[in-house]
Design goal:
- The structure is a single chain.
- The chain has about 270 residues and is an all-alpha fold.
- The chain is built from 14 helices and no strands.
- The longest helix is centred in the middle third of the chain and has 25 residues, at about 80-105.
Length: about 270
């Protein structure tokens, strides 16, 4: 964990942005429905343009599911368990933020508000009043922020390239939610900020309390081996139901990690 770059001031900008936007919404008396309509043209434009690549977008959007995304980084559990200690704490914080926000704001999803003929839905058509914020964006930015700060280079030019690359990848994946017709652009932007805050919160909480320090202990490896096996079964079922390339990549990553952790455990 690169402690030199993880400081309290990293909270200032995202919290300021969230506060500023929420105060603007409050001052303009923006409720659930005019929140939707002020970004209608933006949503329809992005949805139309991004959905021109349906297979790509449908694969990308799966990465907002923790069950698909986290296996790509499961190998780090045996080599750098500190990352997973922070990531697990951050994930719990992000889930809390997501649940509370969705229940409080109750924003209707695009398919609940707009005529289905006016925009593109890829995959399952989601409806209901739980659009704000995007849970997928929260998951992506929680995970990517932990990784970004953990592996932050020391030289300033590399820091800029590294951070821009991570953030760009995060937004590309997150805006796939607009492409598939599941979220509005502001849902994604808010979710990204909340994910960033969740990651920082997880890092600071874990640094103070060491909740998951036992993860690096080899005697607990059987627990993770069992969890990995169950996760493999879940991914196999997903592949049977939907033959997506991203599921295969996630499964391969998990199988490699399962092989390594099992070999480390049985090695005397």
């Amino acid at each position: 964990m690169n402690k030199n770059v993880i400081r309290g001031y990293l909270f200032y900008i995202p919290i300021f942005l969230l506060t500023l936007i929420l105060l603007f919404f409050y001052h303009q008396n923006i409720n659930q429905y005019n929140y939707v309509h002020i970004q209608k043209s933006w949503f329809l434009f992005l949805n139309s343009e991004l959905s021109k690549y349906p297979n790509l977008q449908y694969n990308l959007t799966q990465l907002g599911n923790a069950l698909i995304l986290l296996p790509f980084f499961s190998i780090l559990m045996t080599y750098t368990p500190k990352i997973w200690e922070s990531l697990l704490t951050a994930s719990f914080v992000s889930v809390l933020f997501s649940i509370l926000s969705k229940k409080y704001f109750k924003v209707p999803r695009p398919a609940t508000v707009f005529d289905h003929k006016k925009f593109v839905c890829i995959g399952e058509t989601l409806s209901g009043h739980n659009s704000f914020p995007s849970g997928h964006a929260i998951t992506v930015f929680t995970t990517f922020t932990v990784l970004m700060l953990t592996f932050m280079p020391n030289k300033i030019q590399y820091k800029i390239i590294w951070c821009c690359s991570i953030l760009l990848a995060g937004f590309i994946i997150s805006f796939s939610r607009v492409a598939v017709g599941a979220h509005y652009p502001l849902d994604v932007i808010f979710g990204s900020i909340i994910g960033y805050i969740s990651a920082l919160s997880g890092i600071f909480i874990n640094r103070k309390y060491n909740i998951w320090i036992w993860i690096g202990n080899r005697k607990y490896y059987p627990v993770f081996i069992l969890l990995f096996i169950v996760h493999v079964m879940i991914l196999v079922i997903k592949i049977i139901n939907e033959n997506l390339i991203v599921f295969y990549l996630s499964l391969i990553s998990l199988l490699v990690s399962l092989t390594i952790i099992t070999a480390k455990y049985v090695k005397k």
